[in-house]
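Team,

Forwarding the record for the chain on the shared tracking sheet. I've put the sequence and predicted structure together so nobody has to dig through attachments.
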Amino acid sequence: MENLIENQTITPMPRIGDSAPAFKAVTTQGPIQFPEDYSGKWVILFSHPADFTPVCTSEFMTFAKMHDRFKSLNCELVGLSVDGLYSHIAWLRTIKEKIEFRDMKNMEVKFPLIEDITMDVAKKYGMIQPGESTTKAVRAVFFIDPKGIIRAIIYYPLSLGRNFDELERALIAMQTADKHEIATPADWVPGEDVIVSPAGSCGVAKERMDNEELDCKDWFFCTKKLPLDKI
């Protein structure tokens, strides 16, 4: 038993701050080399449990609806499940031709959906969670920045559909933090005040921020306004 365990290849799950594991794959939009093909862009790489399932269908329709919004934020979408390419194509065609959900119909998925019947990519990204399922990927979401670095990871169980407002909010928050060297508070949405990192005292914090108007409650809690037009 000990020798068997020693001989097993264990793939560590990627973490925030790691380089996104590289792979080549066949997709519904042609072959890709990841993350190389997306250099200079943000990417949301996400997995779903299976084609022709209802929760996944509602999610893909929503991703399709929001595709242009993500592109306007310099972010590309890349999906994955452990189904084959022909299953993907048939499912996406069925979504476009037959499925209506909320205010969505005739939804065409134009972003790539990865074929991963070998589970190679899913295993590299820790998308197979044996406690949930050994044959289906959980609903994992990886935010990867323009340098190919993993910046955030969200996991959902098979039964729980994703919150797409939160995915968009998280992306904008990370982009805003990078651009302005700030942090965002709980439940932050674009246009609200942001947090200035502690600098030892309010005076030092104000000096570091080029004397911008700060609202400091104490040395460790300073906020400032950041209007929508600056995000």
